[in-house]
Specification:
mainly beta, 14 strands, 208 residues, globular
Length: 208
């Protein structure tokens, strides 16, 4: 028989972060609204401190029939250099070795996808992985009012599956009026696994 989800797992995920950038906490929820044999549809909704509701529908593949909102929700945190926090979702809900992360932000009173640094399309995922074949992640920081992120992309170049060695690059971006602007790339060669793992995931922010 199918496992019964715990109360915590079944609970509606959400956040009290300031999403619209006015400095006051908002109430954001992420709920499942319908499913078919091929897709699951969720509603991302924010009720602002002024009482306004901003929401959007998000449809993902039905890789598992039991997918819940909690499986897709990663959390909210300030990511770019504009006021307000962003929401991070995994569009494949934890299925497989590599997440398909999308970041949603409020712009002009509506939810929009925040394009990943260096991406040419909104459909390009934010690449976050910690796997023997590849390691990737983002390290965020703010200095003198400028938001920066270092995007790391490493692939196994030698060694073994149990002790991989990585090569790739780390690119620094700063936040501009129209999005992320590249400001330099550092090549990485023959980095041992232990050090490479320190660059995996979301760094410098706390998703909750």
């Amino acid at each position: 028989p199918a496992a019964t989800p715990t109360a915590a797992h079944a609970a509606t995920p959400g956040s009290r972060a300031d999403m619209d950038g006015d400095g006051r906490p908002d109430r954001t929820t992420f709920t499942k609204v319908r499913s078919t044999s091929r897709t699951h549809t969720f509603r991302l909704s924010t009720r602002t401190a002024t009482g306004r509701t901003i929401s959007t529908l998000i449809t993902i593949p039905a890789n598992l029939s039991t997918t819940t909102a909690k499986d897709v929700w990663w959390g909210a945190a300030p990511i770019d250099g504009a006021p307000g926090a962003e929401v991070v979702l995994d569009r494949i809900a934890g299925v497989g070795d590599f997440p398909d992360c999308a970041v949603y932000t409020i712009r002009g009173g509506a939810y929009r996808i925040l394009r990943a640094p260096g991406a040419r399309s909104d459909r390009t995922d934010w690449s976050v992985s910690n796997h023997p074949s590849q390691i990737s992640g983002y390290a965020f920081s703010t200095s003198r009012g400028v938001r920066r992120v270092v995007a790391t992309r490493l692939k196994m170049s030698s060694g073994s599956w149990d002790a991989p060695v990585y090569s790739g690059y780390r690119t620094t971006y700063r936040w501009g009026r129209t999005g992320w602007i590249s400001s330099g790339t550092q090549r990485v060669k023959d980095m041992p696994d232990k050090r490479a793992q320190t660059y995996a995931g979301w760094l410098g922010i706390t998703l909750r």
